Structures are given as structure tokens and as C-alpha cells.
């Protein structure tokens, strides 16, 4: 900087000025002392009397005043023993100076009339007071300091209050302050055996005199801007004072005040403010203009010239005072060896710290510097040997040495005001809470309007680059031997033609860490600057190259060159280094990786990090760096990494990215094995899932066919106790260090085994009691279950299932006081993971041991205990066990696993695709196919029964149209907690044959051949009693019963005769008929067709409902009885089909899904867009979006037509519908869009597995129209009416391509239609069945990463309605809760990778993985990981919600509600009677 090159310095004029010499100085000292003492005392006494009585001074002419001033001038230079005389002189002059501001009567008249000339002389005379007195006592020096303080207060007060100061007076004041500072601060400070030396007056006044100088200079800038000569003089004279800490502190105090004001008018009041103390905030004059602030800020910034000189004692000591001291001293030979220069490391650190604060302020990092520009305590400034690093010498009470980007303090010293802070998650062993510690948890974004990196580097770059190499031994290739000149300012006067560094560094033979604290501060500031690189911003090549060289030296890990503070600061401040598209930054990857290995390989690093950086936070920063480089090896593969150090005599070291892959994976596994902090562990688990997914997809794309030779060496004993897991963890720890070969980690198969083994071992050994880590581990296991391997690792899959089962057993067996909602959430998550493993690897259940383990843990979840705790125990049957599950949530999760095993394992996805787990047929569809049905609206032909209060069975007794056999046929619609299923059943007594009809088995088989020989026919008269009865004699008892004749009267005799006649006539008639029949039989040919045995005719009418219930054991007297003392209905209940509301409720039940449903909305944001309208218009054309965006969108799921889709579509009004019109023509979808075709009106992107459905919707401008139209339509409707009204765009339902012909193999059946009109079958599900959180997940594609801070999420919530969010609405307005919104920002980097940023309300369970903020992901795995993260976010919210109920529980409750409303209250006879009656039509 040559801004003062044409101006002369006034240093010599000030130092040689004789204006403070009196005529008495020409006389002997005793004469002057006598005169001064004799004259000053009465003047002071008269002055005090005049002040108290408001009398005028008797000095009425200029001559008298000037004579007295000569005496006062000499009196101020008296020895300190004449303290009273000196004090009187100070009192007189201080009163006289009041003439400039508030004149007093006691001031002489000439001074009152023209105060400026006299004030100039007074100020010059007062300089004598500041001259150190040799060999003064401690008490006298203190008194001198008190007088100096009074003079400084008076001058400062007068200058502030006066409005008549002329330029000459201002210049005199400034020259006086410069001279006073030079007199006190130029000499080197010393200590001796006696105590305080003669120069110790500087220690008393150093801070005060400097503060007055700078404050007065600021005031002068506002009122009378100093001349360039004065500015240059100030700069030159400051060189002599730089060995004082107070100079640097006061310099930064002014710089920070000016910087705060400068940023305010440059970037506006909304720019993050540099928080100052109240005292510093008043430092800047109120009348100062913005232009004056800018001019003053720039000049003050360079007032110390080059602050990096503070790390060079040989430069600081090149002043006249130091040279004079060296010549006069007998012990000091080299001025640079003076004892006072031992404070330079700390002063250098303070200088770099202040510059770092200004860098942070320009970057927009909100920070507080209250108490920062204060002198450190005496123990912090104690002189120590240079060999002791200054960062270790200062106490932890000082302010932090590092201000990381996006960080905030955990705590502060008592002198500072508490600022906003975020409490970080504590590790298992909490660190000591020392003041000033930093944390990455409370990260704040940088200001979006911050200046470019080049601008900041133009201001501070030269200083920071030079300071970052303080004490570093440079390689010869990095030394510019011809460059001997050094910069005195931060600007590069001419652009360097090479990246070599100053030749002064060549003197170092060995690395010197004396100044590592300041160097660390400079390195940290540079890292923050380059990490603040904006999208599309260009940084000068010279800056990038110098920065990379500095990073190379700062990342050294060998014992000779390592600097713990520098390395920790670089790692802590470089989290975003590999995420911001810096040109050529990949050349640092090998060195960063080496540094990460030094930190992450062990819990306690092998070097001493900075005091203000906790080890946990340092490890977290290293993990972020590791996550940003995991995708590099498989992305760049064989691309060579250039060596940053080029030795002319040696061949360059060739290293490719793919060669770093195994090192990165090994480091990831080691870090995961050692880590104890919960938050860091979750980050590492996300990185492990990223590495596994990326490697598997890469091998799949490359068609890798490498067959592994063996499984991982870890073995698991299925019968081992829980204590064995600790031993397995130790075994894995040993094997991971010795047995794990590069070949095992180089393939997806090997990494799969190592990853699952490590996660399961750590889960059982350390993570089982930590909710967040356990959930993250389960999410990783879910992701690993879905990883596709060319050669599945079956053995490890089996072991993983065993581990998950053992985890559930351990958690369920914990003591009752330990059971909590969090514990049960872990168990539920484990059951979810177990379900996925069984479905994705269905062959596991073919293994007897695995099946036993799974069913045993399911039994434990449902009942709360096992049938056999040990193999030797006798089994305990179901009826003998008491149902005591850990909780109903656990029981529900276990039931879901059991049902999945029975229904889905080995059968997913079903023939109709993963969009539906149950049948798409309902009553109307079946009745259309039923024989004899004429109307499609006859659901009453079904009989409805409820089994065990949980299953509704609809039975249709009419055979279907394609059933030809006259067999008992029943069609059952089974609605249960896990879905709806349609079955047609026939009662058969013989097998079904392809060519032989079933009638053949029911036809007449014929009779045997007739036989004429029938034997001899004997005519025997039948008797009622034996013949011997007639021979028995009668007794008197026999005569006790009278005969009929004895009882018959005459009247009765007539009637009896008639009866006897009738009997005889009937007997004769029967005998006649008998004879006729015998005669006819004799003439009839044998055999007789009428008497021949014939089979009964085949029955064509069956009561199949009765047969079904009876044959399946549902129909019994016990099943119809009401349970005693219970409100539970009987095991078998009939529903009243005459109530038409039953069918509406059945449709509502069908609308309750059987899986969790999630919706993800995707947005595309172009650079600088902040309004919702512009953002929605981006996706209307393909040319408006990046090609990678469309590729990413299609990797999330597969496109489906909303009108034909039977699954979740993103809105309840169009979900779970079927289509009645089979020959519907497809609508033409617009082409050439940027994704707007998937806005939910015609198409969406869909993905589903056995437990979750996800719809990916890309809102478009039409979404606004749809929202407004639906709001108008539903404005005057009740919620029930609105639900039953179909949306205008949802008039069609999915066709049923299902065959009803059971005699044919499965395949597309005939299209069944009997109406040309298309009618809406059913509406969406009932809101009353939707409990739990409505979690919104946004995926936002950013062209410019900085736009994530201004994304209008609140404005876009309105176009992302799913129909679920109306549950908590009032007045038709959707209530938006920010805590239920999660946003995943995606930014495409120039190198082809993608940067992720997550935003959302942080709770104890909201940190879902695999994706975490800052992760860099490859293109091949982006869609998969985004989908997994979105699902895991929603799943964690359901675990956290108190209102959430699993889908099968909601369906079960709805079934119970239907039973209560529509149960037929009939008696048992009436129930059986109804079974024998036909259904009323």
C-alpha cells in the first residue's frame, strides 16, 4: 500500500520537539525546582479559592500567563519526590483547559478570550508528566499514574465537549498523545530482583494511554479528519510499540467497532451483527458519517502495518529503543533475545484472533466480542520460555482461540454476556465444561449477502497466508529465494507470478511451534473463508494455490512437523471444504485422510488439540469431512491425484482415488468401533450406509462377478447368553484390526459382512440403551436388508436375524423400572427391521433354527413370555400362559411380524404388484359375476359374520358365473386387520381332473346281476305274544282290570258296534289290496324298476354359508354364547344387512390402509428464486431444469397413473380406488415437462415395500388451481359431505385384471362391464381413522446452494395437502406446524456429486439416517438414499407421536366399531333359523 508514500512522517518532529522545555530548564535543577515550588503553590491555592468562590483570576494579561506557564512547564518535569508540586501544576492546567469546553471564571482572561493557542501550549507542556522518572519508588509511580489518568480524562472530556477546537489544536492533541505513547511504550519492559523498575509507569498507563489515543483519533476523524502526514506518523510510531499486548487489543477494539458500523451500512441492518460491549458501542462518535467510517476503517486496519511481524522477534526488536538497550546492557547481545519479547507468541495470537473476528464478521457469522479486547490476567501474560507453546500457557479463562463457521459457544466466562447456544448431545463420558468451548451443534448459516471470497482475501489474505506458515519449515520447492521484501499491509501490491512463498521462511531449519496459536487462528480463518465459497463464485488461482500449500503443511501428521492446535483448527473449520466446489481441492484428499486417521482411529488423539475444541466436537468435524469424501473413490475411480509437493530430483508419487477406497472404509469401521458419542455414531452409521449402497450399486452396474472365498470371521453361538456379545465385540475389534483384509472391504459382499457384524455387535454391546443410536442402527439394518448383492451372504443374513431377535429379547427382559416409551420404541423399530429382513431374504425361514428364533421372539412380543426359556424346560402352552406383553405397541408390532410371515414372506410382491397387499375385489365386483344376479347394487345378498370381534366375513352363497359344477360353492370376502381377501370355495368329495367332469363321480354306478333263486317262502302268522301265554292261569290281579264288555252300556254298545264295523271293513279292504299287489307282482318281470334301489338326485341348492361356518369350526353353541362379565361380543356374530349404513362403513374400512403411507413433495429452485409461484413454474418445461434432476426424480419410484392406481397417490381423494369401466382410454399426458406431469392429478411417482407406501409428488402451477377449486367446493360442506364428494379429477378407478375362473391358471381375465357409464366406486378413507403426525417431507433441488436459507417453505405448504392434514383444521384452513416439516436440499456439485442439507425441527428422535447434513452422495445412490431417509424420518415421527396407531390396529378398531353398530341381537334358535333361510333380496 502506497497511500502515504508521498507524505513525510512527523516522527522526528514529535520526538525532537522542544515545546515542552521551559526557560528554567536552562538553569540548574535546584534553581528551577525552588522557583517552581515557590510559584506553583500560591497559584494553586489561589486557583482553588477562585474556583470555590467563582472569582476571576488575577492573571489578566498574556505576558503574566505565559510567564506562569513557563514555571508550570518546568514543574511538570520535577522528580516524583515533589509530588505535591506536580499535582498543583496538573490541577492548574486542567482547570485552564476547561476554557475550550465550559469556561470558568478562575481561568485567566487571555486564555478565555483565545483558548486554542494556550491549549496547544498547555498540551505540549503536559507531555513532561508522561516522561518516566528513573529510580522512582512504587508509591510514587502510582501517584504519577493517577495524575496522568486525570490529564487524559480532562483532555478526552474537553475534546469531546468542545466545539471550538481548531485543526491546529486537534493536531497538537494527536501529536501529544503520540508522543506520550511513544515515551511510555517504546522502551522494552524489564524486570529486576528489586521489583518494579523505572519503566513500569508504562505498565500502569499502557492500556489507558493507547485507548485515549485511539478514541481521540476516532473523534478527530469525525470532526477534523487527520492529515495524511499524521496518519503516516501514527503508522510509523506504532512499530515501536508492538511488543505491548495492549496495542493489539486496542487496535482490534477500534477495528471491531468500525467493522460493525461498516457492515451495517454496506449490507443493511439484517446482516448478522458483530455484538459489542456497551462501552465499545459508545466508542464511535454519533456524528461520524458512513464515508468517514469507511476511510477510517481502512486506515486503522493498516495502522500496525504487517501484524505477522509479531511472530518475528528479529523484526519487532529493530527499533531504536531496543538497539539502545542492547548496546547499554551487558547481558543482552541480540535485541531479539530480550525477555519482554517472550510475550510475542501470545500477542501474535491476539492479533490473528482480532483479524479472525473481522473475517467472521464479513462472512456473516454472528458472534459476540464482549470482553474480548481486554487485557488478559497476569497469569496469562506471564513470561515463559518460547519452547512452551503459547496455546498451552494461557488459561482456559481467556476467550476462544477459534471461531468456527456456523458455531457458537457452549459457555462463556463470567465477564462476557451469555449468548444463544444450543446444548449438544453429551457422550457417554461427558467432557469437562470449560468456558469458551466450541460446538458444531448450534451451527448457523452464513449470510447470503456476504462478500465474495476474493474480496475478503484482498483485505486479509496476505496477512493470513503469511501467518499460517509462521514457524513452518518449507520445502525448497515452495520457497521463493528471490523474494526478500515483505508486505507491510494486507494487499498484494502486484499479483504474484508464482505460488512460492517469502524467502524469510528459508531460515527455518526445523519446525517451530512457538507461534502455533496464532498460526492456528490464521489457518482457521482461511478455512472459513474458502468454505464460504458460493455457487458459481470464482476465486483467484493464486489464492487457491497458496491455500492448498498452507493446508498441506497444516495437515502434516508426522511427529516432526505436526502442530496439534493447527491441525485441530483446520479440521474443525473445514467441514465444508470438499462440498463447495473449490477448483482442485481434491489434491488435498490424501492429506485430509491421513489427518482423519490420526483423529478417528482412537478416542483420544495422539496430539494435543486446541483447548477450546472438545475432542468430541473435533471428531464430529472429522466425521463430516469423511462423509464428504466417501463417494470420491468410486466416482473418480482411476483418476490420478496430483502431488502438491514436487521434488525436481524425485519421481512424482502416483496415487489414484480408487486406491483410497479401502483406507476410507477401514477408517469408517474403526471410527464406528471406537465412537462413544451418540450424535457422532449416527453420523458414522449414515456414512456406513452410504458406502455400502454406493459400492453395491457400482458393482451391479459394472457387473462384478468376484465370488468371495469365505464369510466374515465372526461367529455367533445361538445359545450363548447376553454376556457373550461383549466378547464378540472384542473379537470383532481384534479381527477388524488384524484379520480384515483389503479384499474383504473391496467388495460389496465383504463390506456387507463387516458392516452387519459391526453394527449388530455394537448394538448389543454399547447401543442397546441409547434410543437415538439404536434407532439409527435399526435403520442401517433395514437399509442393508434391501442392498442387492450379486452373491448374497446367507450366513450373515441368518446371523443378523438372530442378533435382532436377541436384541428384542434383551429389551423385553429388562426390569420393569427400565421400561419406558423410548424402550418400547426401540423394540418396535427392531420388529420393523426383522420384517424387512424376512421379506427381502425369504429363504431364511427355510432354516429351522432361524424360524424357531423368529417365532419365539414373536411369541415373546405378543404374550410377554416364551413357551420355553431354555431348551430343557417343558413347553408352556398358549392356554396356560397369561397375556402380559411389554406394551400394546410391542404386541401390535409382533402381530404385524407374524402376519407378514404368514401372508407376505415369499409372496411379496403379489401378482397385482406392490401397490396392493390385498384383493381389489369387493361386493359389487363379485355380484356382477354371480349367477342369477341382475343388479349390481345388491350387496344385501351377502351374509356378514364377525369372528372373534376382529374379522368380518361376507359370504355370497350364489355361485359365480364361471362355476359350472353343481357343488356347494361359497365366495367369501374376508376383512381383517391386515387387509381384504376374496376367496371362492367349493365342497368337493373327489379330486378335480382336467378331462373328467365332476359329474362322473356322482352318476349311477349300476347294480349287481339279478339272481332268480330267492329261496323258499314260508307263510308265518305273526303273533303279538308267545304261545305260552295262553296256558298261564289267570289270577285275581288279572281280574283287577275289567273287560270292555263289562264296562259297555247300551248307549256305548251302539257306538262300539259301529267302530267294530269300520275295523272289519278296513281289514277286508287291506286284504283285497294285498291280494291285488301279490297278483301283480307274480305277473311282473324281474327286476322291478319301481322297487329297484336308485341313487338320490344331485342337489343344486346348498346353504353354503351354514356349511362354511360349520366345517371351519366357527359354528357352535359355545361360539354364540355371550361371555360372562364382559362387554366383548361372542366369538361368532351376525351383522344386520338390512341396515344400509353397514355398506358405507365397510367401504370406509376398505379405505383404511394396511401399510404406513408417506408423501414426499419435490421442488426445483433456480438461482435466486424466493417466491412460490416462480418455483412451481420451473417444472413445467424440461429446459428449465437440470438433466440430473429428472434422472434423480425417476430413481425415486416408478410412474403410475392416478386414475388406475390402487395404492397411495399422495392424496386421500384419489387413493385406493378401482375402476369399473375396463375399456377406458388412457389420457394423454403432456410431454417435455420438467416433472410437472407427476403433480398428483394424472401421474405420481410411487414406491412401496411390505410395510410402507410412498408417493412422490412434484407440485406445479396447477396445484394452486386445484387447491383453490377444492377449497371453494368444500367451503359450504360439512366434513362428512366433503369426504363423500369425489374430486373432479378423480372420476376413475383402477381396472381389475384378475381372473375369477378357478379352473384356469392365473392370468388376465375377461373385461367385465355392463354399463357404459363410468362411476366413482368409493371415496378416500375416513379422516377419523387417521391418527398420528402428518409429517411433511420436502425434497428441494437447488441450483445455488445458498438459496436453501431463503426457501419459502411456509408458502408452499398449501400446495402439498394430502388430505390428512385437515384433521386438525378449523374454518377450512390447514394448520401448519413447523416441527412437522422436514426438508432435504440437494445441490449438484461441479464434479458430478451431490451435496445434501437437511432442515427440520430437531427432537430426540428426528435425526434419521442414512443422509445427514453435509453428506456428499454419488449420482447412482442419490435416489435410493433420499427415499430411505424420507421413510425413516416419517417412521421416527410415528415412533415419537403419542397418537399414532399401526394400520392393522386402526382397522381392528374400525371392525369393532362396525360390530357395535350393526350387530344382530338374535337368540341362538333365531341364529340357526336364519342360516337355513335364503337371503332376502
Topology:
Layout: H1 11-15, H2 29-53, H3 62-75, H4 83-97, H5 109-113, H6 115-126, H7 138-161, H8 167-185, H9 201-223, H10 228-238, H11 245-267, E1 274-275, H12 278-281, H13 290-301, H14 313-316, H15 320-328, H16 344-363, E2 367-368, H17 390-393, E3 408-409, E4 438-439, H18 453-467, H19 516-531, H20 541-554, H21 564-573, H22 589-600, H23 615-627, H24 632-636, E5 640-641, E6 655-656, H25 661-674, H26 678-702, H27 724-738, H28 742-745, H29 748-767, H30 771-785, H31 794-812, H32 821-840, H33 848-863, H34 888-903, H35 923-929, E7 942-947, E8 951-956, E9 969-976, E10 979-986, H36 1044-1047, H37 1050-1083, H38 1104-1111, H39 1117-1120, E11 1132-1134, H40 1141-1150, E12 1156-1165, H41 1172-1177, H42 1187-1194, E13 1198-1201, E14 1243-1248, E15 1252-1257, H43 1261-1273, H44 1279-1284, E16 1336-1342, H45 1353-1356, E17 1381-1388, E18 1394-1400, E19 1416-1417, H46 1419-1440, H47 1447-1462, H48 1468-1475
Parallel strand pairs: 1-2, 12-15, 12-16, 16-17
Antiparallel strand pairs: 3-4, 5-6, 7-8, 7-11, 8-9, 9-10, 13-14, 14-15, 17-18, 18-19
Helix pairs in contact: 2-3, 2-4, 3-6, 4-6, 4-7, 6-8, 7-9, 8-9, 8-10, 9-11, 11-13, 11-16, 16-18, 16-19, 18-19, 18-20, 19-21, 21-23, 22-23, 22-25, 23-26, 25-26, 26-29, 26-30, 26-46, 27-29, 29-30, 29-31, 30-32, 31-32, 31-33, 32-34, 33-34, 40-47
Amino acid at each position: 500500500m502506497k497511500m502515504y508514500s508521498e507524505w513525510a512522517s512527523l516522527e522526528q518532529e514529535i520526538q525532537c520537539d522542544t515545546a515542552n522545555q521551559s526557560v528554567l530548564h536552562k538553569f540548574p535543577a535546584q534553581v528551577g525546582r525552588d522557583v517552581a515550588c515557590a510559584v506553583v503553590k500560591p497559584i494553586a491555592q489561589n486557583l482553588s479559592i477562585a474556583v470555590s468562590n467563582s472569582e476571576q483570576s488575577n492573571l489578566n494579561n498574556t505576558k503574566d500567563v505565559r510567564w506562569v506557564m513557563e514555571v508550570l512547564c518546568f514543574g511538570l518535569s520535577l522528580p516524583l519526590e515533589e509530588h505535591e508540586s506536580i499535582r498543583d501544576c496538573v490541577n492548574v492546567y486542567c482547570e485552564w483547559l476547561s476554557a475550550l469546553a465550559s469556561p470558568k471564571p478562575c481561568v485567566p482572561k487571555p486564555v478565555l478570550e483565545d483558548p486554542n493557542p494556550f491549549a496547544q501550549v498547555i498540551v505540549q507542556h503536559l507531555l513532561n508528566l508522561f516522561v518516566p522518572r528513573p529510580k522512582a519508588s512504587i508509591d510514587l509511580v502510582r501517584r504519577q499514574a493517577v495524575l496522568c489518568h486525570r490529564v487524559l480524562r480532562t483532555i478526552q472530556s474537553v475534546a469531546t465537549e468542545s466545539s471550538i477546537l481548531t485543526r491546529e489544536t486537534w493536531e497538537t492533541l494527536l501529536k501529544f498523545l503520540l508522543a506520550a505513547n511513544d515515551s511510555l511504550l517504546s522502551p522494552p519492559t524489564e524486570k529486576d530482583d528489586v521489583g518494579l523498575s523505572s519503566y513500569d509507569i508504562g505498565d500502569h498507563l499502557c492500556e489507558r494511554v493507547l485507548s485515549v489515543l485511539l478514541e481521540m483519533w476516532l473523534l478527530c476523524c469525525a470532526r477534523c479528519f487527520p492529515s495524511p502526514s499524521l496518519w503516516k506518523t501514527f503508522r510509523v510510531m506504532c512499530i515501536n510499540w508492538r511488543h505491548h499486548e495492549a496495542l493489539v487489543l486496542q487496535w482490534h477494539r477500534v477495528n471491531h467497532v468500525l467493522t460493525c458500523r461498516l457492515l451495517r451500512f454496506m449490507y443493511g441492518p439484517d446482516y448478522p451483527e458483530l455484538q459489542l460491549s456497551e462501552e465499545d458501542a459508545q466508542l464511535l462518535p454519533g456524528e461520524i458519517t458512513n464515508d468517514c467510517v469507511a476511510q477510517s476503517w481502512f486506515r486503522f486496519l493498516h495502522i500496525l502495518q504487517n501484524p505477522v511481524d509479531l511472530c518475528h522477534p528479529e523484526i519487532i526488536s529493530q527499533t531504536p529503543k531496543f538497539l539502545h538497550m542492547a548496546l547499554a546492557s551487558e547481558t543482552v547481545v541480540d535485541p531479539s533475545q530480550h525477555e519482554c519479547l517472550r510475550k510475542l507468541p501470545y500477542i501474535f495470537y491476539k492479533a490473528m484472533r482480532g483479524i479472525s473476528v473481522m473475517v467472521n464478521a464479513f462472512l456473516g457469522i454472528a458472534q459476540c466480542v464482549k470482553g474480548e479486547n481486554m487485557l488478559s490476567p497476569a497469569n496469562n501474560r506471564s513470561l515463559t520460555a518460547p519452547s512452551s507453546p503459547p496455546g498451552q500457557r494461557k488459561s482456559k479463562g481467556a476467550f476462544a482461540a477459534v471461531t468456527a463457521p456456523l458455531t457458537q459457544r457452549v459457555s462463556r466466562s463470567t465477564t462476557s454476556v451469555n449468548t444463544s447456544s444450543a446444548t449438544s448431545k453429551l457422550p457417554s463420558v461427558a467432557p469437562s465444561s470449560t468456558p469458551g468451548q466450541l460446538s458444531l451443534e448450534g451451527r448457523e448459516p452464513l449470510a447470503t449477502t456476504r462478500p465474495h471470497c476474493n474480496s475478503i482475501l484482498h483485505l486479509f489474505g496476505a496477512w493470513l497466508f503469511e501467518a499460517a506458515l509462521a514457524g513452518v519449515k518449507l520445502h525448497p520447492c515452495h520457497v521463493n529465494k528471490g523474494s526478500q521484501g515483505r508486505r507491510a499491509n494486507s494487499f498484494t501490491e502486484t499479483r504474484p507470478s508464482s505460488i512460492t512463498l517469502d524467502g524469510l521462511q528459508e531460515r527455518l531449519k526445523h519446525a517451530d511451534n512457538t507461534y502455533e496459536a496464532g498460526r492456528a487462528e490464521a489457518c482457521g480463518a482461511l478455512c472459513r473463508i474458502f468454505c464460504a465459497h458460493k455457487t458459481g463464485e470464482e476465486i483467484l488461482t493464486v489464492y487457491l494455490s497458496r491455500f492448498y500449500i498452507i493446508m498441506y503443511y497444516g495437515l502434516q501428521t508426522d511427529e516432526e512437523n505436526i502442530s496439534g492446535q493447527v491441525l485441530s483448527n483446520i479440521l474443525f473449520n473445514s467441514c465444508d471444504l470438499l462440498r463447495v466446489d473449490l477448483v482442485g481441492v481434491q489434491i488435498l484428499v490424501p492429506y485430509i485422510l491421513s489427518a482423519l486417521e490420526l483423529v478417528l482411529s482412537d478416542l483420544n488423539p495422539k496430539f494435543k488439540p486446541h483447548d477450546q475444541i472438545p475432542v468430541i466436537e473435533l471428531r464430529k468435524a472429522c466425521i463430516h469431512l469423511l462423509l464428504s469424501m466417501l463417494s470420491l473413490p468410486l466416482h473418480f475411480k482411476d483418476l490420478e491425484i496430483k502431488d502438491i509437493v514436487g521434488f525436481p530430483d524425485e519421481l512424482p508419487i502416483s496415487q489414484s482415488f480408487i486406491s483410497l477406497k479401502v483406507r476410507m472404509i477401514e477408517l469408517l469401521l474403526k471410527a464406528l468401533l471406537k465412537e462413544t458419542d451418540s450424535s457422532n455414531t449416527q453420523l458414522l452409521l449414515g456414512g456406513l450406509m452410504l458406502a455400502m449402497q454406493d459400492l453395491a450399486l457400482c458393482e451391479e452396474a459394472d457387473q462384478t462377478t468376484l465370488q468371495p472365498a469365505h464369510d466374515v470371521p465372526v461367529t455367533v453361538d445361538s445359545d450363548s447368553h447376553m454376556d457373550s456379545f461383549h466378547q464378540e465385540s472384542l473379537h470383532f475389534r481384534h479381527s477388524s484390526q488384524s484379520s480384515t483384509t483389503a479384499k474383504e472391504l473391496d467388495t460389496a459382499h465383504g463390506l456387507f459382512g463387516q458392516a452387519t457384524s459391526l453394527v449388530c455387535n455394537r448394538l448389543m454391546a454399547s447401543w442397546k440403551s441409547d434410543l437415538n443410536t439404536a434407532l439409527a442402527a435399526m435403520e442401517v439394518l433395514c437399509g442393508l436388508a434391501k442392498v442387492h448383492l450379486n452373491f448374497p451372504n446367507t450366513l450373515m443374513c441368518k446371523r443378523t436375524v438372530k442378533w435382532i431377535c436377541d436384541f428384542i429379547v434383551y429389551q423385553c427382559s429388562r426390569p420393569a423400572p427400565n421400561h419406558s416409551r423410548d424402550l418400547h420404541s426401540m423394540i418396535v423399530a427392531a420388529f420393523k427391521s426383522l420384517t424387512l429382513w424376512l421379506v427381502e431374504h425369504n429363504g431364511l425361514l427355510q432354516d429351522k433354527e432361524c424360524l424357531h428364533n423368529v417365532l419365539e421372539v414373536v411369541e415373546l412380543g405378543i404374550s410377554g413370555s416364551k413357551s420355553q426359556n431354555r431348551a430343557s424346560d417343558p413347553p408352556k402352552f398358549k392356554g396356560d400362559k397369561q397375556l402380559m406383553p411389554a406394551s400394546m405397541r410391542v404386541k401390535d408390532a409382533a402381530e404385524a411380524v407374524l402376519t407378514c410371515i404368514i401372508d407376505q414372506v415369499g409372496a411379496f410382491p403379489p401378482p397385482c404388484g406392490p401397490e396392493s397387499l390385498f384383493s381389489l375385489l369387493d361386493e359389487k365386483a363379485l355380484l356382477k359375476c354371480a349367477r342369477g344376479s341382475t343388479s349390481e347394487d345388491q350387496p344385501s345378498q351377502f351374509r356378514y359374520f364377525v369372528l372373534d370381534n376382529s374379522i368380518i366375513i361376507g359370504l355370497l352363497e350364489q355361485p359365480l358365473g364361471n362355476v359350472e359344477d353343481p357343488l356347494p360353492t361359497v365366495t367369501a370376502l374376508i376383512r381383517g386387520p391386515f387387509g381384504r381377501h376374496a376367496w371362492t370355495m367349493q365342497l368337493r368329495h373327489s379330486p378335480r381332473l382336467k378331462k373328467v367332469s365332476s359329474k362322473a363321480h356322482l352318476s349311477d354306478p349300476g347294480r349287481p346281476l339279478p339272481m332268480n333263486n330267492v329261496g323258499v317262502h314260508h307263510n308265518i302268522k305273526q303273533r303279538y305274544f308267545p304261545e305260552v301265554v295262553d296256558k298261564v292261569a289267570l289270577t285275581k290281579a288279572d281280574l283287577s282290570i275289567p273287560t270292555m264288555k263289562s264296562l259297555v252300556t247300551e248307549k256305548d254298545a251302539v257306538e262300539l258296534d259301529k267302530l267294530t264295523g269300520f275295523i272289519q271293513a278296513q281289514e277286508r279292504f287291506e286284504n283285497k289290496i294285498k291280494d291285488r299287489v301279490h297278483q301283480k307282482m307274480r305277473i311282473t318281470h324281474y327286476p322291478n324298476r319301481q322297487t329297484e334301489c336308485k341313487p338320490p338326485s344331485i342337489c343344486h341348492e346348498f346353504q353354503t354359508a351354514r356349511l362354511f361356518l360349520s366345517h371351519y369350526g366357527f359354528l357352535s353353541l359355545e361360539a354364540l354364547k355371550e361371555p360372562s362379565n364382559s362387554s366383548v361380543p361372542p366369538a361368532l356374530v351376525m351383522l344386520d344387512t338390512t341396515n344400509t349404513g353397514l355398506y358405507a362403513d365397510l367401504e370406509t374400512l376398505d379405505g383404511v390402509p394396511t401399510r404406513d403411507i408417506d408423501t414426499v413433495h419435490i421442488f426445483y429452485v433456480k438461482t435466486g428464486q424466493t417466491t412460490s409461484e416462480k418455483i412451481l413454474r420451473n417444472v413445467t418445461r424440461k429446459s428449465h431444469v437440470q438433466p440430473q434432476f429428472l434422472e434423480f426424480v425417476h430413481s425415486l419410484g416408478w410412474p403410475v397413473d392416478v386414475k388406475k392406481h390402487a395404492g397411495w397417490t399422495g392424496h386421500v381423494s384419489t387413493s385406493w380406488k378401482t375402476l369399473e369401466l375396463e375399456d377406458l382410454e388412457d389420457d394423454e399426458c403432456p410431454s417435455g415437462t420438467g416433472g410437472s406431469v407427476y403433480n398428483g392429478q394424472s401421474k405420481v411417482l410411487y414406491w412401496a415395500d411390505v410395510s410402507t407406501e410412498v408417493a412422490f409428488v412434484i407440485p406445479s402451477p396447477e396445484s394452486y388451481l386445484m387447491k383453490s377449486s377444492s377449497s371453494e367446493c368444500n367451503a359450504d360442506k360439512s366434513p362428512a359431505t366433503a369426504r363423500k364428494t369425489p374430486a373432479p379429477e378423480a372420476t376413475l378407478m383402477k381396472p381389475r385384471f384378475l381372473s375369477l375362473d378357478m379352473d384356469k391358471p392365473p392370468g388376465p381375465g375377461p373385461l367385465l362391464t355392463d354399463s357404459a357409464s363410468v362411476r366413482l366406486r368409493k371415496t378416500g378413507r375416513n379422516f377419523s381413522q387417521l391418527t398420528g403426525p402428518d409429517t411433511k417431507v420436502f425434497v428441494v433441488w437447488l441450483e445455488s446452494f445458498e438459496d436453501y436459507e431463503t426457501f419459502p417453505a411456509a408458502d408452499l405448504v398449501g400446495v402439498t395437502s394430502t388430505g390428512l392434514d385437515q384433521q386438525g383444521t378449523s374454518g377450512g384452513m390447514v394448520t401448519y406446524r413447523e416441527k412437522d416439516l422436514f426438508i432435504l436440499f440437494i445441490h449438484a456439485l461441479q464434479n458430478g456429486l451431490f451435496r445434501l442439507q437437511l432442515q427440520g425441527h430437531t427432537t430426540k428422535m428426528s435425526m434419521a439416517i442414512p443422509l445427514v447434513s453435509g453428506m456428499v452422495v454419488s449420482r447412482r445412490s442419490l435416489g435410493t438414499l433420499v427415499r430411505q431417509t424420507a421413510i425413516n424420518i416419517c417412521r421416527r415421527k410415528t415412533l415419537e407421536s403419542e397418537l399414532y396407531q399401526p394400520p392393522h390396529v386402526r382397522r381392528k378398531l374400525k371392525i369393532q366399531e362396525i360390530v357395535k353398530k350393526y350387530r344382530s341381537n338374535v337368540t341362538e334358535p333365531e341364529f340357526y333359523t336364519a342360516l337355513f333361510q335364503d337371503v332376502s333380496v
